[in-house]
């Protein structure tokens, strides 16, 4: 997030201290006081859930690989899923000082959710039905689009948070904002619409006088394009909608930027603030 870091670094210490209060520090540091489980336990559970699918895919494709079938396709999926598991593990073992404890946990949860989603589509890199080169290209480009979309939406959310918290006026994308806000609602509507069509397409086609056998596949393809692609992009944003806390991210970044100044102003000891002995 190079662009956001540039904007955040332009916030002066004076503005930061004037805007961020003790409650902001406690939220970045501890979050909800009434937590039933420790952050460490929740991180472990999230990791186990996150790696379960890529680990299962590694096992399945490894078994297929031992049979000598589709060596390149199977190897590609295995490598991709292993990289995702390694990246998830990196986020799990990445440590944050006590004053960024809740901030780090939120970033961790969001990162695992994104990687788990990408893991699901990485399986498509091993799809061997039809033309493998086309399948590989489609799924590879799809994953790149997902990553780009995450980046742009996160940037937009961070800029909006900076504007709201520090009364700035950075330009943001209304399209990305609206898309994110309607993501959950749109998924429900699109899924219901597609399901309604699939359950009733025969009488709909008969009603319109179309030849079912000749048009069913064509209409299915059109439905897939018109609803499927936008739905896929919107679903991609669900982890961002629910888990990326831009407001907390901005406050955490600014507090981290002026860590010692905030510590001195709140009378935390260095051990309480930075951890260690």
From TrEMBL:
Protein keywords: Membrane, Transmembrane, Transmembrane helix
Keyword Membrane set for record: yes
Listed transmembrane segments: 45-65, 71-93, 105-126, 132-150, 175-197, 222-244
Record-given protein name: Uncharacterized protein
Species of origin: Listeria welshimeri
